[in-house]
Each structure stands twice: as C-alpha cells, then as structure tokens.
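Predict structure. Chain length: 182.
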Amino acid sequence: MQREEKASMSSGQTPDSRPRLRHRLRMRLAAVVMAAVAVLGFAALGPLTATASATVYNHACGSNGTCPAGENSAVAAANFWNQAPHGHWPTARAWEYTGHTWIYHGGRYNDYDHQLRNFEQNYYGAGDPNLYNGPYYEYDVYGHASYHAARGAARIVRNSVTGDVFYSPDHYSNFWYIGTWN
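Prediction complete.
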C-alpha cells in the first residue's frame, strides 16, 4: 500500500500536500482571470446584457401599419401603474400582489443604445435635452399566478421625467410609443 501511494506522488509530495497544490493552482487561475479583466476590461468576459440596437415606433403602430400584439394590454398596464394604490409608478424592483395576481415593477432600464432618448429628442424637437435622458424604469405588462413565475417578454418602459411610456412586446428588441402618463 505504501509503495502505491509513493508511486502515485511526484517527488517531494506527501498525501497532505496535494490539497495545498490544488488550492495554489486555483489561486493562480483566479489571478490570471483577474489580470485579464484588469487589462482588457469586463468586455473580455462577453456582454452582460443584450446591446443590440432597438427600433422605436411612434404611437403603437409601426410605419408599416402593423400594431404589436398586446397593445391594449400595454395601455391597460400603464393605466394600472399610474394609479396611486401601489405608489404611482414605483421605481424599486419588487413583486406586488394585486389581490388576484402578482406583477413585477420598477427597476432601472438602461437605455444603453440611446434609442428611447433619441426618439424622444427627435419627436419633440428642440428643448431641454436633459428631459430625454431618463431615468427610465421598467414594468411588467401581464400579471402572474406566482411571484416565482417567469416574467415573460412584454414590458413597458417609462421616462420618469417626461412621463413618456413605451411598450416592448419582445423584451426590448422593439419599442412602440404608447403615450404620456404623468
């Protein structure tokens, strides 16, 4: 038995030194990854969120005359979130029970590709450009049976400064401007 243990170990190792060796190798790997991130930035790890450019359509119907499925639901959701019982357009991320269903609200929507901001600036023309920088917050359109349920793709996004609301049926790939709620 002692010969088998000795044969499987390289010179200078004892059975107690193998866990330390694995720990040192893990630490070296972690150091290499941290150095790569420091030099190349987090972009080297890949995108953390989708950054594809979105399309923004005016007044719920696209330029080709098609309206997204769920447009009426999005307007109903905007009316719901505009009411006072749950905080009038809450901005904190949280699930809320509406009496018969759960719905998720709040959370910052980062307009990384500036599609919403650019749409608002082009739509309204000249004016204070700071109005169109948001912040934007996201809200679910549909309720769910449980707060553990998958949220689905449909969202409305609201500029908390201007009150402009946009509907996205496909999780931020396209937006339709549906109106202003202050």
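Summary: The chain is about 30% helix and 20% strand.
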